[in-house]
Design goal:
Structural class: mainly beta
Order of helices and strands: EHEEEE
Number of domains: 1
Strand order of the largest sheet: 1-2-3-4-5
Shape: elongated
Distance between the termini: 21 Å
């Protein structure tokens, strides 16, 4: 469905798979790391076994001057493919946003 929002609460297996396989660190801009607990997927389109989606997450950055990591939202447009049973097979970054 277009416009469908997928989160860890609604699709925990897919979110965990994306966190493990999407190489989200390539979208981090300040040398931080992706906080997998903040991942959410906004489905743009779905056709056959492919989904195009915007994937959002928070980049956590450790700042020397503060005890808590600074958190900044990041996003990229990804293409995901699924097998006939609906399990994710591959993911590729189309472009950062």
């Amino acid at each position: 469905m277009t416009g469908e929002l997928l989160t860890a609460a609604t699709h925990p297996e897919l979110i965990a798979w994306v966190d493990a396989n999407a190489r989200l660190e390539q979208l981090c801009q300040r040398g931080g790391w992706p906080d997998g607990a903040t991942l959410r997927i906004d489905v743009c389109s779905r056709e056959g076994n492919e989904m195009i989606a915007n994937i959002f997450f928070i980049e956590a950055v450790r700042e020397i001057s503060v005890c808590e990591p600074v958190r900044e939202e990041r996003c990229g447009k990804f293409a995901l493919t699924f097998d006939p049973a609906g399990h994710p097979q591959s993911i590729r970054l189309l472009y950062p946003m």
